[in-house]
Every structure is written in structure tokens, then in C-alpha cells.
């Protein structure tokens, strides 16, 4: 882990940088801070959550200094990674068995195994407070990566640090600093009101009663769930339940939130509401979010940067705006008319996929063909009954990116 | 931003209190939450407890005939009333203990174990606390209904000492049973399907644990075998203590439970460490 940050190799430089910062001149706190830095490089900056009552007066000083230190890093003096992954690999061994009874008997006598490479040398970084999209089709390796990052799975090789912790060695300590929501695995107790789970989580995360009550009250307001807290979870709609799920995962004020398909099954309004709340919590508390989703809208609305994985490898990483500019440019238009179309109907720069008597389906690339002449051309061709414009799905985009990387 | 928001959002607004009491408090909270959860469906809870009525009725008929046929007032030191009260306690323990091996196996098979392992608590202790929360209410229901039925059948129960001693031993019984359940459940990390182990364990409890027959009625050699196995100290120990609450017997039950808890608990602990290290999670 010492090699995680360039300054770890230069403690003399670190000392001069830290000592020249005005708030760091108090010797005791400085010693604690530096030892903390050297022990948990890349720097683990506590926000008071873990230090407040454990270390007493000196620790409180350290708490406030370390908060300033966090801002110091956030302000860009030093880039601070919340997640740092280098050449991560995970290979599972699964049993293979030929079909039928003879295959089963052979497998009993001489079992055959097959290595499945779920993650193949993934490397990436996520800064503190960043909203990072981590997407890919089923079986791409994203869930395995997330499970390694939460410390549940051991990687076959490679390095990873989450907030300075090596997840699979310091799972319990890391658990206090991260939150997680898995859209398909509810963590709220189904038969109880959400508030009961909130109080349970407060105890599990060892929060004191006073701050837990204030925290619940704040999150209830932020997520607009005050009226829902005392209703049994089984009576909530999926959208309401998911807002409660995310609020529950933020109770202990984690610095990194892992959201795995949080919007799965939600309607458009519920999705939008959930996205807004996540965005707000990111702005208010600076919680970093690693978001996996099959919904391009989630990534588009929330994330500045996106990583796409497929077959256990990163096949694309860049800003979301760049992704959109590059790949979401192909539009498919389905048009229907009130009158018959000319059989040779066509538009310049537009690929006609199908032309019928009363309608047509076509595709064009906005990088090559501007939208305006296409729309004008459609309107000029007759009396329009209906027009549907669709973009490629995220799966199509991923396929396109993967095909490009294989070429 | 309001003052309330400011205070909550500041780092000092969310203070962790990592004391030993807080660590114990989290398992107490899990226990309490499960207790409240079990109360969500009181009719279901009552329904489960009614099963003991059927069992007691069958036992009453069976043992009435047996005692009548032998013509003896007591067999192996137990009168018909003692036997019925013994069986009531044995059934109350058996029907209220939760089969956590099935829960753990399912969690391993469907991958949901991952979502418990990423919380700051011990996976084994979590299940024990939750299982205990479920068992306590069921045990209470079984005791009340079972005792009422047996009282009507054979007269008043043993004295208060029997209730207290048996109550204390039942706590350790659940812990010991939980260790076996955890052992079976954790084996799912290796073999995935654990039905066979569960079936064998339940049959051992029924036959050698003293659920169907007090071990005192066994031939001497089988009694010796049974008393030297852990299953007797899950069911027979507390139930026999209930009808014969002597200090000597209490000491023997606690000693045996302590020995087996150390042995089986130690195996569970080692197995859990190994299972967690080689964890393969289903479901991607």
C-alpha cells in the first residue's frame, strides 16, 4: 500500500508540504497526522466519524485538522483517490460435467474443473467525492469487482485500496467507511417499518443515540421519506423503498457509496427522484459514488466519468460527455404518415432501413447528418401521423465499443 | 442550510462510539429487531405454538398405555407426570429452535451472504442473535400453551427452581444447537447443498437427544453412548433438569454444555475463517 501514492515514497517532501499548511502546526496533531499518512497511504483522512470519541481531546483536534486536510486534497493540491485498483484479477474454478447420467458418474469419479476469469487485470481510480459510472453487461465482471472492493472476495492477484484500506484484509474497518445498496437485494427488514432498520443500522455502525436521531431526521428530510418511515417496508412502493434503502446506507455517513443497480424496476418518476437525491447527497456530503446500472439515464444524469467493462476487462473509460458525443449519435427514426409515401422515398445522409406504404424506418448519424434537414425532409414528405426517435441502447453502445476494441 | 442540517452534516454530527458496550449493543439490537419482526404476525406465531398441543396429546396417549401396561408408578425414576413435563420441555426447546443451517445454506447458494459480509458485524454472531430473537418468542408461546395442556392432563408443573434451572440451560442449548447449525450451514461454502447433513443432525437429536423418549428409559449401554454425545445436552439436559432441578444435575448439564460448546464452537470458528477466505459467491 505504501507504493499507492507518490508521496509515500517521499516522506521528507510530505513533511514539508504538511508543515507549511497553517492548520497543521500543532505538534501533537501533526505527529498523528503524519503517522496516519505513512501507515495508510494513500492518505486515510478521517472525518471525525472514527476518531471523535476514541482518541479524546487530541483526536478532536486531529478530527478538525483532518477535515481541513480533506478539503486541502479536494481543492486539488493533491489528487486523492477514494478507490485505487491496479491490475486486479479474479479467477473462479467451476466444476464441469458432461450431459446425462454417464457424465454425472464420470464427474463423480474424476471431477473436471474449469477456470473462469471473471476479472482480467482491471486498473482504475476513483477520486474522493466523484460520481463514477461502472457499467457492463451481465457477467462482465462488475459485481465481482465491487465484491472485491467491499472485501467480500479475495482477488487472485493485483492491488486495491479503498480509502486507504486493503478491502480483503481490513473488511470490518472498511465497512464503517463505505455504504452499499444492491437494487436486487433489499437490506431493509421487510416486515418492519424502515425506521426500525435505521435504528438497527445505527447500532451496527456503533453510532451514538443522539447523532443517530439527528441523522435519521436529516436523511428523512433529504430523501422526503418522513411520512414513510413508520410504514412497514412491505407496504411501500418500489420507488419509496429504494429511497429508504439509499438513506439507510448513508446513516453512518460513508465516504464511498457503492450503488449496484439502484434504479432497477423503478418507473421514470421514481428514477428521476432517486437520481436527484443521490446527486444532492453527493453535493452536500461529498460522498463518492461508484454506480453500476444498465440504465444509460442513470449514468448520464449522475456521472461525469464512466468505465465500461466487458469479459472482465475495461473496454472504455472516459467522460460521459465524450461517450455521448462518440456513441449516442446514431438515431433511429420510425415515422408514420396519414397518406401514402412515394415508393422511392429517401433522405440525403439517411440510411433507409424499411420503407412501407404509410411509414418508414431509417437511421442516421448526427455527426455526419444534421438533425434539422432530416426533420424538415420528413415533414415535407407528407402529413405526419407519428414520429419516434430512439437512441441505441446501452447494450448496443457497449457492443459497439467492445467490437471496436476487438478490431 | 438550516442549523439542524449544519450540525448533522458536520463531522462531529455523526460520532461513532466504538466501545465494548457498543459492540455488544449491536448484537442486542439484532436480537431485539428479530424479536419485533417475529411479532409482526402474531397469529402465525400462535399457530406454530399450537403444534405442541398435538404432540402432547399423542405422547399422553402413548405413555399412559405404557405406564398402564407395566403397572409401575414410575419408570427409571420418572412418574407419568414427570415424563409428560419432561416431554413438554423437550418439545418446547425442539419446536422453538431455529434451523439456521437452512438460512445460511440458502444465503450461500443464492449469493446473498455477500450482503451480510459487508456490514461491520460478525456473520456468525449476527445469525445467532437473530436466531435467538426468533426462538425466544416461539419458546415462550410453546411453554405457555404446552404447560397449560400438560397441567390439564397430569396436574401441576415442577416447582419454580425447575423453571429457573431449565431456563438457564435452554440458553446454552440454543447456543450449542446454533453451533451445529452453523457448522452445517458453513459446510455450504464447500459443498453448497447441506440437506443430508441437516437430516442426519435432526435424527440424532430425535433419537439420541431425548426428544421422543427420556434417555433414562434407554438400555444402560445406549444411555452411556447418548450421554457422551453433545445431542443429549441440547434437549435432554434442560428437560431432565426441569423435572429434577438438583444442583448436582445443574452442574453436570452446564459442564457438558460448556465442554461441547468449546469443541463445536471452536470448529465453527476455524471453519468460518476458512470459508470466508475461500468464499465463492454465486450470482456474479
TrEMBL record, chain B:
<keyword id="KW-0812">Transmembrane</keyword>
<feature type="transmembrane region" description="Helical">
    <location>
        <begin position="254"/>
        <end position="272"/>
    </location>
</feature>
<dbReference type="Pfam" id="PF06182">
    <property type="entry name" value="ABC2_membrane_6"/>
</dbReference>
<feature type="transmembrane region" description="Helical">
    <location>
        <begin position="203"/>
        <end position="222"/>
    </location>
</feature>
<feature type="transmembrane region" description="Helical">
    <location>
        <begin position="160"/>
        <end position="191"/>
    </location>
</feature>
<feature type="transmembrane region" description="Helical">
    <location>
        <begin position="124"/>
        <end position="154"/>
    </location>
</feature>
<dbReference type="InterPro" id="IPR010390">
    <property type="entry name" value="ABC-2_transporter-like"/>
</dbReference>
<feature type="transmembrane region" description="Helical">
    <location>
        <begin position="39"/>
        <end position="59"/>
    </location>
</feature>
<keyword id="KW-1133">Transmembrane helix</keyword>
<protein>
    <submittedName>
        <fullName>ABC transporter permease</fullName>
    </submittedName>
</protein>
<keyword id="KW-0472">Membrane</keyword>
